[in-house]
Amino acid sequence: MRSFYFDNGVKAIIPYSWLDEKNDNLVSFYDPVDGVGALQFSFYKAIDADFADLGMVLYGYLRDKHDRVDIKQFPEYAACSILDEDGVYWRYWLFLKRGDLIFVSYNCGEAAKNGDYDIVNNIIKSITLV
After folding, report:
1. Which of 33, 52, 73, 90 has its CA 20 to 30 A from that of 104?
2. Which residues constitute the domain of residue 33?
């Protein structure tokens, strides 16, 4: 495992086998050999950061992309999982850290949705501020 430091003081622990690609405000991670999906991070400045309802913000973003959105609210983040009409399995998270909204998504084919599940969960749990 290796520490990956984003430009805004956020850190995540990523497996050595996973590559990263940066494109403007988007950072993607994937395992080119054994992986089945891609994990993507994007960052936005939060307006009224102290009062942000992460579940509603995540719902607002996803409702135009998916027919059924069932958001789960946790103390530190909001999350949901969705299987779209094309058979793509999506997982979404939204965090608020130091005034930044951190939007994270993971996608893969439905049949492979458990392939990276534990690895992705560990990456999500590792998100911290430095």
Report:
1. 33
2. 2-129
